[in-house]
Recover the amino acids of this structure.
């Protein structure tokens, strides 16, 4: 009886790709796929929904209360303008931004665009929209009011309208917003608004003094 020739077995045959240290094409595609602007890296949609959505929706439901809190905060920051000016707005930027990022990040899932318009959007941050629309919803809002891109997420602008209806100055949602200035990302909107309010106050005071002198 003739011996049957033995065929050589390739090294690694029958061993899963993960065991050999190689990467499958599917795994490579998943790894290199661009992250959604809505979901940050290393955070699953389930965890994000549990941790962020509930707080964001709470903020929208209590938009009237937060409107009052924001107004008092703005008054406080404006009262401290002489201090900010003495120290230097550039120097206080880092510590104020540190606090702002964490407070607004928890309450509104803030993206630190530097041009906060929460008081004009029912306390619903429009930067949470996957399309980052600043002037109302797109035409793809689902029948249940959810997002076209993120089917499980309530449309940011649907919630913005709901929140604005509870606010004293809710009609501010009708104002047309400027496009996002990307150069202002990761800067403090609180300090910027304060500096602008202080400049407007000084200009109004100067105009009044000139009018009185005339």
């Amino acid at each position: 009886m003739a011996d049957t020739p033995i065929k050589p077995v390739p090294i690694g045959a029958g061993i899963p790709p993960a065991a050999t240290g190689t990467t499958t094409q599917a795994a490579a595609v998943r790894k290199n796929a661009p992250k959604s602007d809505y979901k940050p890296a290393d955070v699953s949609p389930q965890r994000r929904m549990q941790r962020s959505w509930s707080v964001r929706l709470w903020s929208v439901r209590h938009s009237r209360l937060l409107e009052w809190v924001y107004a008092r905060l703005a008054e406080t920051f404006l009262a401290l303008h002489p201090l900010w000016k003495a120290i230097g707005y550039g120097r206080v930027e880092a510590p104020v931004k540190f606090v702002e990022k964490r407070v607004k990040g928890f309450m509104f899932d803030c993206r630190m665009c530097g041009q906060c318009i929460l008081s004009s959007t029912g306390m619903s941050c429009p930067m949470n929209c996957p399309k980052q629309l600043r002037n109302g919803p797109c035409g793809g809002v689902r029948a249940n009011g959810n997002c076209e891109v993120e089917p499980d997420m309530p449309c940011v602008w649907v919630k913005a309208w709901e929140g604005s209806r509870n606010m004293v100055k809710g009609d501010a949602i009708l104002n047309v917003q400027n496009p996002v200035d990307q150069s202002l990302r990761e800067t403090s909107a609180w300090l910027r608004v304060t500096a602008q309010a202080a400049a407007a106050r000084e200009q109004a005071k100067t105009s009044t003094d000139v009018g009185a002198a005339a």
Remarks:
- The two ends are 124 Å apart (CA to CA).
- The mean pLDDT is 84.
- The helical segments are 17-20, 25-32, 45-61, 63-79, 81-87, 89-108, 156-164, 189-213.
- Residues 44-192 form one domain.
